[in-house]
Amino acid sequence: MQLFYDGDTDWPVEEYDEVVVVAAECRFPALVRKILPKRKELLVSFEGIDPVLDLIILRKSARVPLSAVELVQRGC
Q1: What is this structure's pTM?
Q2: Taking the alpha carbons of 40, 45, 50, 54 in that order, is the dihedral positive or negative?
Q3: Cα(1)–Cα(57) distance, rounded to whole angstroms?
Q4: pLDDT tens column, 32-63
Q5: Contact 42, 32 (CB under 8 A)
């Protein structure tokens, strides 16, 4: 099973994609570390993206539903 951003089959979710996690009115930049297709969730990491964010967020990773992320850029 493969997951796609916004149901668009041209954009499959891949590891190391840069995404934005949308939570209420807040948007947090993150990197996709692992894909959990059966649960339709992603394991994302906030560490090392923004030095200010590193000071604010205590948790360096989180499991989030695919519907809560937006693709920003493909990973290398």
Answers
A1: 0.84
A2: positive
A3: 32
A4: 999 999 999 999 999 888 888 888 888 889 99
A5: yes
CA dihedral over 29, 43, 22, 16, signed as positive or negative: positive
Instruction: Specify the pLDDT at position 76.
Output: 66
Mean pLDDT for the chain?
89
20-35 residue pLDDT tens: 999 888 898 999 999 9
Tell me the C-alpha distance between 57 and 54, whole Å: 6
Q: Per-residue b/e over 13-28, b at no fewer than 16 CB within 10 Å?
A: beeebebebeeeeeeb
Strand-strand pairing, 69-73 and 61-65: unpaired
Domains annotated on the chain, with CATH: 5-73 (2.30.30.140)
